[in-house]
Amino acid sequence: MALEEKKINWNELIETASREKGIEKSVFVDAMKEAILKAAKKVFGEEREFEVAYNEETGEVELYQYMTVVEKVKDPLREISLEQARMIDEDPQIGDELGIQIFYLEQDKEKAREQDERFGDILKVKTARNAFGRIAAQVVKQVVLQKIGEAERLMVYREFKDRVGEIATGLARRFDRGNIIVDLGKAEAVLPLREQCPRESYRSGDRIQALIKEVSKEAKGHQIILSRADSRFVVKLFEKEVPEIYEGIVKIVSIAREPGERTKIAVSSSDSDVDPVGACVGMKGSRVQAVVQELKGEKIDIIPYSTDLAKYVCAAVAPAVVQRVLIDEKNHQIELIVPDDQLSLAIGRRGQNVKLASKLVGWAIEVHGETYIAEQKKKLGEFLSQIEGLDPSTMEYLFKLGYHSPDNILNADEEDIAAVPGLNLPLAQAIQQKAYELKVKMREEEEASQEVKSEEAQ
Known about the structure:
By secondary structure, the chain is α/β, with parallel strands linked by helices.
């Protein structure tokens, strides 16, 4: 009989795995019982009734086939006659469920041989039993590894699920298509390429700080997702460096970030004696420089938060100097007018400064230079002067209120324009009509200019 040649020491396997993985013994016992049951169904047939038990004394997984005692056997794989049952049990009764242990381990070779000789015609397992030992071991290994994986994922989830939004520190272990696998000690995490900052690079063994962005319970790959590009990472770095933030005295009200390039944060203080900007900057810039260093040189602008929107937005576009702030509450838009020599500074490289300021404040921001505004006013004035009954002084007052471009006028309500001293609803309607005509003309001129440039390029 070709039973499993090598004895399967279940107790040793379970104890070792439990100790090394820190997983409850019952997890492995249940896994192996499930594995043996599946293997038995596969090898001996799905139609048989099996049960599996773990023997604590021997450390063996025992397999039992159950058969119902009947007067006349109709299903030989599930039923046994009373006469046959008496060969196995002392006092069987009709309707009893008779459990017969199927021996398959190496140490039970003699018992298996005797069982086949005495009850082979009843059990009909001799042929399949030869291969069952080997198949059982393979299936056990697969299922146990699966259970270990599931248990480890659950342990990782429980360990890290409440740490989402915190900073974790680990070592770069390996790299996979731009993603960095980070060893956090108790688990591995991944810093995806999309969550890395541009121009940052790491080598195996490098220390990495990152925000725990996500922890998944059922992830097939890495459960812990890290991020250095998330804005919350900057917030957490400031919490580490600025005690006043950690203690709740200073608050980061808003943050806007272009990872690897620039970050703007707006801060406020609940204590009038504590300067929020100064607290974040630190003595000789020590605190903010610590954050900048961790971010590999990313620029950081710290501005005081203000409930005065005009004051707030001017601070947001600093260091540019703003001459006028026009707020369109209806469309949630802000127009900034700056000296011509401040225009590029206010907008920033690739529009970065105004884009971050807009995100920080939460309003759409447009920045225009003095010359541009003067040109707009001149064109608009020429069109509006055609309106009968519109006094030049009223038109100038209209400009001062911020209605100095076709878009300003078209985005406004008729009633708001009509409320301007010297105007009424018919004049307001005429002003909007002229603004529309000017916008159409300007669009046509722009299209014509683009066509000329295209022809010249050819």
